Amino acid sequence: MIGILALHGAAAAHGFPGWPGIRPALTPHWSLIGPSRAICENATIPFSRAPPAMPIFPARIDSRLPQVGTTIFTVMSRLAQECGAINLSQGFPDFNAEDVLFERVAYWMRAGFNQYAPLAGMAPLREAIAHKVAALYGTAYDAETEITVTAGATQALFTAVAALVHPGDEVIVFEPVYDSYAPAIELQGGRVVRLQLAAPDYRPDWDAVAAAITPRTRMIMINSPHNPTATVWSADDMARLAALTRGTGIVVVSDEVYEHIVFDGTRHESCARDAELAARSVIVSSFGKTYHITGWKVGYVVAPRELMAEFRKVHQFNVFTVNTPVQLALADYIADASRHEGLAAFYQAKRDFFRAALGGSRFELLPSAGTYFQLARYRAISDEPDTAFVEHLTRDAGVAAIPVSAFFADGRDERVIRFCFAKNEATLAAACERLCRV
Ligand code: PMP
Ligand code: GLN
Fold first, then answer.
1. How far is the CA of 306 from the centre of ligand 2 (A)?
2. Were 190 and a residue from 22, 138, 165, 334 both cysteine, which residue would form a disulfide, CB within 3.0 to 4.6 Å?
3. Which residues line ligand 2 (CB under 6 A)?
4. Which ligand is nearest to the CA of 178?
5. Sheet containing 217-223: which strands, arranged edge to edge?
6. Nearest-CA neighbor of 246 among 220, 219, 290, 277?
7. Strand intervals (E) in 35-144
8. Ligand that lies nearest to the alpha carbon of residue 158, given by its number in the listed order
9. Which of 317, 335, 353 is the last residue of a domain?
């Protein structure tokens, strides 16, 4: 039989979070729609008969991650798309970055910078990062040996764990915990030691941290400003961390992707501010959050050279290098410090707008001290589990959110959900109007 094959992505049915109408070829399947050629976006591939269906894998798979399914962010964005709901679930802006950034990418592409970057990243970007970190936090990282550009923060975190955690090592994390940490640790044979940050204030219990540290503790993973709780650690918290790790070989992996989104005049307490912590920390940041380009997946790591040497041993084999023209464009863009310096005020205005617009709702808003997230309790509305509540909210009220139980290994449900307010005011206003009717 002769016909036309059309390549659809799974995303064609659901759209793609943040990019309605665009159909990336995820888990492609083929369908027969007419004579003679297969169509994939603009490409055409001649064929004479439909290929047979994919045969099934002929053995049992012993999963490395038996408990892991699809991330809650993908699940909720997909549901939002299916329901035509306003998507305040997965964290990404619904507004664009500045044209000048896109122009710089085009400039470097046309100028011929389209081949592999050095494995550590393009020198101008590493130098710009060194300059920024020194200006903000007062620590001078060497661009040559102590800074690496990564394919976003997720890869940086994964690589740091893969490079430094041995089988049997213990790694302390704080729950609710960002969903990529535990799988990264478990894939290395590490043991995840979970400490709790309890609602409503989600403060770390430093006595519990002290009690959890053992001779097997290899690493402590921290995240401030914190996703999903929107809390920010204080200088006192950092001092406690420094004191508890003093004299040990513990590595701190500090996820600082929201470093520039800290509200109400509070300053971000980077591990890079404290010489003692800086000496044992792998600090991770992401341009996705800072410049409204989560889909570009570019971030970076700074660490003392001994740790960075180990990091790069893995980085060179799980990514090798990151997109060259984008790195050069970011090097140009980062040079204007007002861009990252203005981000806190930019998002604080959105936070305030969102909270004010929910003032008349039955949601109980917890404090949001940083990040672009807002936690809310819904006990005046419903006593259902948070997963059921967000599903109903998406389907019936037309607003998608994230159930915070997804950040707990045991699914602990404190009946709290997370909204992302990295949206245009019109989006936030429309969402809040719906939420006020719930
Ligand atoms: N860490 C935290 C706390 C995050 O919230 C995110 C993404 N929202 C990441 C890491 C991953 O960042 P990236 O998209 O750069 O991989
Ligand atoms: N970090 C983003 C969030 O918290 C999601 C990123 C992802 O989908 N992996 O919403």
1. 30
2. 165
3. 71, 73, 90-91, 227
4. 1
5. 147-150, 299-302, 281-286, 251-255, 217-223, 170-175, 191-196
6. 277
7. 37-40, 43-46, 86-87
8. 1
9. 335
Q: Is the pLDDT reported for residue 294 higher than 90?
A: yes
Amino acid (1-letter code) at residue 379: R
Res. 198 pLDDT band, cuts 50 70 90? confident
Q: How far is the CA of 154 from the centre of ligand 2 (A)?
A: 9
| Nearest-angstrom CA–CA distance, 337 and 333 | 9
Residue 179 Cα to chain centre, angstroms: 9
Residue whose C-alpha is closest to residue 137's, from 31, 240, 271: 271
pLDDT computed for residue 19 by the predictor: 35
Print the domain residue range for 294. Answer: 99-335
Q: What is the CATH number of the domain that holds 81?
A: 3.90.1150.10
Which ligand 2 atom sits nearest the alpha carbon of residue 179? 9
Residues 378 and 411 both lie in one domain: yes
pLDDT in tens, 361-373: 999 999 999 999 9
pLDDT exceeds 90 at position 32? no
- Residue 67 domain-assigned (yes or no): no
pLDDT tier at 45 (50, 70, 90 boundaries)? low
Nearest CA to ligand 2 atom 7: 73
The CA-based angle 11-258-267, given to 5 degrees, is: 165
Q: Which of 18-27, 102-111, 404-413, 423-432 has the lowest mean pLDDT?
A: 18-27
> Distance from the CA of 100 to the center of ligand 1, in angstroms?
24
pTM of the model: 0.89
Q: Is the CB of 325 under 6 A from ligand 1?
A: no
For ligand 2, atom 8, which residue shows the shortest CA distance?
A: 73
pLDDT tens digits for range 377-427: 999 999 999 999 999 999 999 999 999 999 999 999 999 999 999 999 999
Query: Residue 182 is part of a domain; what is its CATH number?
Result: 3.40.640.10
How high is the pLDDT of residue 46? 60
How far apart, in whole angstroms, are the C-alpha atoms of residue 76 and residue 177? 18
Residue 6 has pLDDT above 50, yes or no: no
